[in-house]
Request: fold
Amino acid sequence: MLTAVKKIVLGILNASVRIAILVVAFSLIRKVCLISYDYGYRVFSERPMTEGVGFDEEVVIPVGSSAMDIGKILKNKGLIRDEKLFYIQVLLSSYRGKLNPGDYMLSTSMTAEDMMRVMAGAEKDGDEEEKGSSAASSAEGSSTVTVDVTAESGAIDEDAGDTSGDEQSEDEDGEKEQSSTDGE
Reply:
């Protein structure tokens, strides 16, 4: 009889230990999942430190700084909340390996992506590209084409308002030739 009681008590104790281990394991898994979700969400939607007008901070990025080093510098300046999150954002962005050393004026109203864009020099390049493309497009041709969007279908009518009477066609090499419809 005594051995039967011992077996029952040991069985209950064994089951209790297993249940406790499962509860701890599920709690840890839940915590890891919540942290992972939070990081994953923040990687793509991290808000700036201040909404609206922020304050500017001069940041010096030394030569040879890694993305983690840059994240630490930005956190110490109060520009970001988490240097590890910044590191992950850099790894997943198109600015990976493109952040340049130098002196930058960054603001607390900037997102991490805005800061990466400045440190990669993309803002300067983008401004120059816009100026270059507008100059090139104005020099190419004198034909004016207006674009109308119809309200019902949302379709674009590229020929609407084209009063120049000139048509453009492409030859075999992809170059555009202008031909007049006046019969010349």
About this structure: The mean pLDDT is 75. The domain at 56-123 is CATH 3.30.1490.480 (Dna Ligase; domain 1). The first strand starts at residue 56 and ends at 61.
